[in-house]
Write a structure and sequence with these properties.
By secondary structure, the protein is an alpha+beta fold. It has 3 domains: 94 residues, Double Stranded RNA Binding Domain (2-Layer Sandwich); 92 residues, Tyrosine recombinase, N-terminal domain (DNA polymerase, domain 1), CATH 1.10.150; 184 residues, Orthogonal Bundle (hpI Integrase, Chain A). It is 45% helix and 10% strand. It has 16 helices and 7 strands. The strands form 2 sheets. Strands 1-2-3-4 form a 4-stranded antiparallel β-sheet, covered by helices on one side.
Length: 412
């Protein structure tokens, strides 16, 4: 007799269960339910017995009730069709499993993470920019796909989503990272070529480093007064106030760590993400005061400006926080950006305060070379840069307070 749902459900109550030994209930066409005693319950396994090339074979079809009686019968019928077509179901299952394993091993995400682990020094950092770009812009759509199956149009589709968010520079950067992953796949024998050059010209030109910035002293004064009136969380207020004083790259500011701050020497030392060399930021009295105000709140954690979405403090502030704050103050990205504080400082320090260009370039963490073409040491002109940063902070205070600030003489 064929099995019923009730018989499957109550199989552990069968008379044979009283023996405490495994037993079998049969359906038809080789399908049966194997019942095995466990410590405190019973396991029910679907099995299918069949013959292929004159040999008896047995195939597992899963467990009951995860696989219902109807589903088990559908699997049985499909397997019998394979046998009728000359296919060994057991060998077919092994081939499918192997194919899936190979596909997973060659998926874009697996290769990308392998590339990052081997080629990107800060890959293990949760806030690594390359990793975040892939996780946000590529992995959800192409991560599980074999890298050899990905077409240029697939990547372009992902990049269009980034472009639609209004971040064309990020789209270009994401494309560059994809190219590095593809070249790594080629080098390791898992792809024939890098397909990203096929997308040359498909995206609008990136604006590069030409971020909107305010450089007129009168407008700077208005901006600083607006920042003083900003209403937000204390970390975001402090980050916004500190940005013009230190004029580092926004990503480096939001990822700043307390470990790298030395209040005794009034210095912030960290590795620059762009050049991968240590940078020294002299801290003015005003910058130190901002950090000391914030320290009781976030000083117990790693980041000076932790993400508000992660109370444990294991992630830093979002990359959009400062630009969003400026927008709330009425300064859209076409007027002023967080990156624009760098252009503001460079322009005014040079054209108004008359500071030597090499001092400014050192402080911007740009590559500066001596007359012989050698890169200057990171500590070059450090005493003069300390004076410059204090002079800059005092100048900004003067602008903000409405004083008539005259150009200073050049330092050194």
């Amino acid at each position: 007799m064929s099995l019923s749902d009730s018989a499957c459900k109550n199989a552990h109550k069968h008379a044979k269960a009283a023996t405490g030994k495994a037993f079998t209930l049969f359906d038809d066409k080789g399908l049966h339910l194997l019942i095995k005693p466990l410590k405190d319950s019973w396991a029910k396994w679907w099995r299918l017995k069949y013959r292929f090339d004159g040999k008896d074979c047995l195939l597992s079809l899963g467990t009951y009730p995860e696989i219902s009686l109807q589903q088990a019968r559908e699997q049985r019928d499909g397997i019998r069709k394979q046998i009728a077509g000359g296919i060994n179901p057991s060998e077919n299952r092994k081939a499918v499993k192997s194919s899936k394993a190979d596909s997973a091993a060659n998926s874009f995400e697996v290769i990308a993470r392998e590339w990052g682990q081997k080629k990107v020094d800060t890959w293990d950092d949760k806030n690594n920019r390359s990793k975040r770009m892939l996780e946000r812009n590529i992995f959800p759509w192409l991560g599980s796909k074999p890298i050899t199956d990905i077409l240029p149009k697939d990547i372009l589709c992902c990049l269009r989503r980034v472009e639609d968010r209004g971040t064309i520079e990020t789209a270009h950067r994401t494309l560059q990272i994809c190219g590095q992953v593809f070249r790594y796949a080629v080098a390791t024998g898992r792809a024939e070529r890098d397909i990203t050059p096929d997308l040359r010209g498909a995206l609008p030109p990136a604006k590069g480093e030409h971020f909107a910035a305010i450089t007129e002293p009168k407008q700077v004064a208005e901006l600083l007064r607006a920042i003083d009136g900003y209403q937000g969380s204390l970390p975001s207020i402090c980050a916004l106030k500190l940005a013009p004083l230190v004029f580092v790259r926004p990503g480096e500011l939001r990822a700043a760590e307390w470990l790298h701050i030395d209040f005794d020497t009034k210095e912030w030392r960290y590795f620059v993400s762009k050049t991968e060399v240590q940078h020294i930021v002299p801290l003015s009295n005003q910058a130190v005061a901002i950090l000391q105000e914030l320290h009781p709140l976030t000083g117990h954690g790693r980041f000076i400006f932790p993400s508000e979405r992660t109370p444990r403090g294991d992630r830093c502030m979002s990359e959009n926080t400062l630009n969003a704050a400026l927008k709330r103050l009425g300064y859209g990205k076409d007027v002023m950006t967080a990156h624009g504080f760098r252009a503001m400082a460079r322009t005014i320090l040079d054209e108004v305060l008359g500071v030597r260009i090499d001092f400014i370039e050192h402080q911007l963490a740009h590559a500066v070379k001596d007359p012989n073409g050698r890169a200057y040491n990171r500590t070059a002109h450090l005493p003069e840069r300390h004076k410059m940063m204090q002079q800059w902070a005092d100048y900004l205070d003067g602008l903000k307070n409405g004083a008539q600030v005259l150009p200073f003489k050049s330092i050194g």
